[in-house]
Amino acid sequence: MLAWEPNFKPFVNLPEYELGIVLTGVTNLSKTAYDRTFFDKGADRVTHAIQLYKLGKIKKILITGGQGLNPVNTNTEAEWLRDVMLLAEIPAEDILIENQAKNTYQNAVLAKETLEIAGYRPDQEHLLITSAFHMRRAKGCFDKVGLRTVTFPVDYYTHDIKIDIPNLLYPDPKSMATWHTLFKEWIGITVYKIAGYI
């Protein structure tokens, strides 16, 4: 995973972008509460987007994502994430919503349509915000549909390499879950290539 995930980008070195595109897939839609957002792993996608906005690195945010494949909750992920951003005092007029996408390829297709309707130029470059392990597939999909993006990976599974007794001697129960995530992503990329999505 350490070799797979791209390096993070310091805020200070980042130029300003008109728009940041946030991919969903980070909430627990199996909970039926309607007065809060339950996050799974991946909440960095939201918190870093808020930081980028507050730092003036992005002027507006497009959140793309619907209900997934088997939802229990009737709200969409894009709406849940918008609610969190509103709590962080990001003005509603600076948040665009695409709430129909069910997978990464649809994120790209429908984000492009949403931006075209909103009057964004096709040659504009946007900041793509998603998990580091997922960035290659996401970037490939956005490139395929002709939407120009610069990557901003977040939500890392890895940490800096440490050579110490705990890391050398104690097994890490999270390792199997990390391998599962990585293999699933590799399978996803293979399927997307076969389908012509990237």
UniProtKB/TrEMBL annotation:
InterPro entries: Cell_Envelope_Assoc, DUF218, Rossmann-like_a/b/a_fold. CDD domains: YdcF-like. Residues 21-188 form the DUF218 domain. It comes from the Bacteria. GO terms for biological process: Gram-negative-bacterium-type cell wall biogenesis; peptidoglycan metabolic process. One of its GO terms (cellular component) is plasma membrane. Transmembrane segments: none annotated. This is DUF218 domain-containing protein. It comes from Indibacter alkaliphilus (strain CCUG 57479 / KCTC 22604 / LW1).
